[in-house]
Amino acid sequence: MLKCFRCFLALLCVMTIVFALLPPAQAAEPTGYGYGLLKNDQQRTAYKALEAGISQLSTQIEFTAKGINGTDLQMALDMVLEDHPEIFWFNGAGGFSLLNTGKVTFYPDGYSVDGVAVNSSNIGSYKQKLENAVTNALKGLPNDSDYEKALYLHDYICKLVEYKSGEDDQTAYGSLVEGKAVCAGYARAFQLLLQRIGIKSWYVTGWGINPSSGQQEAHGWNIVFLNNKCFYTDVTWNDRGTEIFHSFFMISLEHISETHVTAHPEYIPSSCGHSDMDYFVVHAGNGTGIFHGYESASTIAGWMREVSPGEWVCEIEVLSGNLITWMSQNFSTVANTLNLTGERKYTISYVDNEYHVRITGTPGHKHSNPLRKVSKVSASCTKSGNIEYYLCDSCGDYFYDSAAKSKISNKQSVVIAAKGHTYTAGQWYANSAQHWQKCKDCGYEKPGSRGSHMDYNMDAKCDTCGGKVEVQILPTNPGTTPTNPGTTPTNPGTTPTNPGTTPTNSGTTPTNPGVVPTNPGVLPTNPPTNPGVLPTNPGVLPTNPGNNTEHNPGGNTEYNPGGNTEFNPGASTATKPTGTQNSGTATKATRGDDSSDKDHDEEDNVSNVELILTGTMVAPVALIIIVIIIAKRKK
């Protein structure tokens, strides 16, 4: 037994020595966007050391990176802070000492929360408060796309946070726990919540052109990486007090560059030119719309969303035209379409080119729920059809949508008229004796189009349809007055050779009228004295051989091959409610200057507060050998 125990101890010693000789396990590489921007190993070494030390609230952070300089140190510190919104107790101020051996010591200028100094022993309670706030924010997260989740978190922050300066106004803690922040706090709270649900985001610093003052001010916003693309969001500028705007939600680099300038364009992804996630494109028609100036009242009414009985709202991006003027001229029609009665009112608030329209009134008739869907029926040649629409069986109103938001005021507009028959010119159907035309859609025969094949030019093709003609068919009674007797003969100016003379043997029956001549090219035995133009096909005998004038029913042009159409085989036979007082107002939503608080208490429907812009700036660090350098990161 003792021997076994000694063997076990010996084995344990060997294993201890082996594990001691193994290289230390490599820590996972940071995944932040800022870390990916670092240019060399010195910066990456500094980033990892600073990230670990600040996370643990170390009062002195030491590491070695040969060849590192002050620029490397500042870059590493900036990227740590911009990658990690969960580090809310450090404002970026501190000093570095750098030896020529590459040994670096960083001395943070203290850690604090809400103006109170914190350390590794008491930071836990503050971390828990932030964790609880994050949990509350994610409770109502929709089970939807990442885009809709990001939109929910954007709106959540706008509702929760008051734009106001304070001790923690540039941190996620200040936004989510204390409910007060400036632009950096808004952006870092959005970044933190997105990261918690697996959406990559990054904090951008620079300047923004205040939409009210037109002045350039320090500012911060977000890049959001979604569906292998990147977009820009400025939560601060979308928070307008009592209203939430979306002009700066998931927009392209080109769009945001109209009002925002980044301090470091070299940090911006080159692929941020996407615009397919623009709020007004994704949510078109669901309480939003894009206005061009020519929309109808029913179209605007169709955009509106009912938020409570008798209260309808819509966010509209105006690309051209004057929405305020349009609404003053068309409000009554829009209110009627929304089925509002009593005193109807509307208000308009706007920032830049985003307008919020709110319409109120007394709800009218409550339509049956659900409305009855009337499916689309295509029109035929003879029967009318209809577009798809929805019908309220209780009142008979028509709607474009199942929610009864977009009423069809002209019920006849749902009807699709019968198309009528369509015939293709020059297209004929035929058998061996006749031809006719048919509707290309339903096959209905065109009235008057049926006729016998006629081949006057003797090319063995019907002169009307072009079909093959094997036997020439002449009229049943050639002595009958032509169908078109008013047509001038082919040679109307020529006097007949002997117009007044009766044929030599007008009453004599032809020698053998029923027999086809042996030589069809030889003239008949007893032809008329003045036969005029010989038949094109003299081999066919007249239908009525007993009448010596059958070949000359109309004078010198008895067959009239060049005349108009005496047999005419191809002829065809064509077959507002009164309302109560309306009123409206339009006001520009604004935000006050940096010293004012965001006023959530104003009763005016456009009581929005203009943007306050600040940012966190870090002073550059110079390289001094064996000297302590103090670098303060300004708020």
Task: Provide a quick synopsis of the model.
With 635 residues, this protein is an alpha+beta fold. 22% of the residues lie in helices and 20% in strands.
Description:
The two termini are 70 Å apart. The chain is of the alpha+beta class and 635 residues long. Strands 14, 15, 16, 17, 18 and 28 form a six-stranded mixed beta sheet that branches. The protein has a four-stranded antiparallel beta sheet with strand order 1-3-2-30, with helices on one face. Strands 10-9-8-13 form a four-stranded antiparallel beta sheet. A hairpin with a 3-residue loop joins strand 25 (429-430) and strand 26. Helix 7 (172-178) crosses helix 8.
Sum up the structure in keywords:
alpha+beta; disordered C terminus; 13 helices; 22% helix
Please give the structural blueprint:
Layout: H1 2-21, H2 33-36, H3 41-55, E1 61-64, H4 70-83, E2 94-98, E3 103-108, E4 112-113, E5 116-117, H5 123-139, H6 146-160, E6 162-163, H7 172-178, E7 180-181, H8 183-196, E8 201-209, E9 216-226, E10 229-233, H9 235-238, E11 239-240, E12 243-244, H10 253-256, E13 260-262, H11 279-282, E14 288-291, H12 297-303, E15 305-308, E16 311-318, H13 323-337, E17 340-351, E18 354-363, E19 372-374, E20 385-386, E21 389-391, E22 398-399, E23 407-408, E24 415-416, E25 429-430, E26 434-436, E27 451-452, E28 582-588, E29 617-618, E30 628-631, E31 633-634
Parallel strand pairs: 6-7, 14-16, 17-28
Antiparallel strand pairs: 1-3, 2-3, 2-30, 4-5, 8-9, 8-13, 9-10, 11-12, 15-16, 16-18, 17-18, 19-21, 20-24, 21-22, 22-23, 25-26, 26-27, 29-31
